[in-house]
């Protein structure tokens, strides 16, 4: 590895200060880069976002997406082109869907000696409804999407006569009284390895994805008027979670019995589900909570900087002279 330490791109600075609300010194950022003659370095991000104002994760120039906003910030900081960053997300959430534990990776031709200032700069450039919670080095084998062993999604339903205005962006309002016990009984029938073709919407992006998925748990908890449906699985087909929730809502209304779940699964036909619920559950109730990975793919590479979880601001005490 070369010992050269070139300055970071001048586009990151305006009159010697970071062009964002986070003020990071020129000297500290200049000392963070080490150029390498190897194939480059991979970086892992854990990201939280409120998806209300975005057209999902997947990159597109307009309207804005989570990926496009992240790439814009990374391009500004690294001075690399989009095709050089190779930013990849673990889950391509739909428009209006939120995340607390989305994971992505990108690559650079140089190493960083510290990540705290880069992390602060990245959050300073992002809009307030997107935040990078964690930044770390990653081994070459790590892939945000293909290294995942399971994903956890949570769907929130506000079950009362009127909607709590403080929950309106993050929970679906259902004014029908739902039977949570019936929903739990039906949710357990999704657990196991099944062909979920009947619960997948068609998409052209993934070709012919494997419809066999394993659901390890599907829990339903109730806190007052708020119902939380949390499902963990090896992977999910396009809109599978929202389609499963839509059926569970119908069961909670007692319009259907729980034995409808294995019957629809057995058909492997999306048209069968459409007989009982035509549309997936609304996107704003859904959140990608976390993603679990193969342990060997989460190992940190040798000679890498310490993982950054952000840093607290500190107050420098002013020392007054004695008189």
TrEMBL record:
Superkingdom of this protein's organism: Eukaryota
Keywords recorded for this protein, A-Z: Isomerase, tRNA processing
Hydrolase listed as a keyword: no
Pfam families xref list: PseudoU_synth_1
Alphabetical list of InterPro entries matching this protein: PsdUridine_synth_cat_dom_sf, PsdUridine_synth_TruA, PsdUridine_synth_TruA_a/b_dom, PsdUridine_synth_TruA_C, TruA/RsuA/RluB/E/F_N
Enzyme Commission code(s) on record: 5.4.99.12
SUPFAM superfamilies hit by this protein: Pseudouridine synthase
Isomerase keyword on record: yes
Coiled coil: none
Record field: catalytic activity: uridine(38/39/40) in tRNA = pseudouridine(38/39/40) in tRNA
Pseudouridine synthase I TruA alpha/beta domain boundaries: 47-146, 186-293
Root EC class: isomerase
Family statement drawn from the similarity comment of this UniProt entry: Belongs to the tRNA pseudouridine synthase TruA family.
Protein name, as recorded: tRNA pseudouridine synthase
Source species of the chain: Camelina sativa (False flax)
Organism phylogeny: Eukaryota, Viridiplantae, Streptophyta, Embryophyta, Tracheophyta
């Amino acid at each position: 590895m070369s010992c050269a330490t070139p300055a970071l791109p001048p586009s990151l600075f305006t009159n010697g200060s970071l062009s964002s609300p986070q003020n990071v010194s020129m000297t500290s950022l200049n000392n963070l880069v080490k150029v390498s003659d190897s194939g480059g370095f991979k970086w892992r991000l854990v990201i939280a976002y409120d998806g209300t104002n975005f057209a999902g994760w997947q990159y597109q120039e307009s309207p804005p997406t989570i990926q496009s906003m992240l790439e814009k910030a990374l391009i500004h900081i690294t001075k690399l082109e989009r095709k050089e960053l190779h930013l990849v997300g673990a889950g391509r959430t739909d428009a209006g869907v939120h995340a607390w534990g989305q994971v992505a990776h990108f690559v650079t031709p140089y190493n960083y000696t510290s990540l705290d200032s880069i992390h602060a700069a990245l959050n300073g450039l992002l809009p307030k409804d997107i935040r990078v919670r964690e930044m770390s080095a990653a081994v070459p084998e790590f892939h945000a999407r293909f290294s995942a062993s399971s994903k956890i999604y949570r769907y929130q339903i506000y079950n009362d006569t009127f909607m709590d205005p403080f929950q309106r962006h993050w929970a679906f309002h259902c004014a029908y009284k739902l039977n949570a016990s019936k929903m739990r009984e039906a949710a357990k029938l999704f657990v196991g390895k099944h062909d979920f073709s009947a619960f997948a919407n068609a998409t052209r992006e993934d070709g012919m994805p494997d419809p066999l998925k394993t659901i390890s748990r599907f829990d339903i908890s109730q806190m007052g008027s708020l119902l939380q449906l949390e499902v963990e699985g090896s992977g999910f087909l396009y809109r599978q979670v929202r389609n499963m929730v839509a059926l569970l809502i119908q069961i909670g209304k007692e319009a259907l019995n729980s034995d409808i779940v294995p019957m629809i699964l057995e058909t492997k036909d999306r048209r069968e589900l459409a007989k009982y619920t035509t549309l997936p559950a609304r996107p704003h109730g859904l959140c990608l909570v976390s993603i679990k990975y193969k342990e060997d793919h989460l190992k940190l590479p040798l000679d890498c900087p310490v993982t950054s979880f952000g840093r607290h601001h500190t107050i420098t005490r002013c020392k007054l002279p004695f008189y």
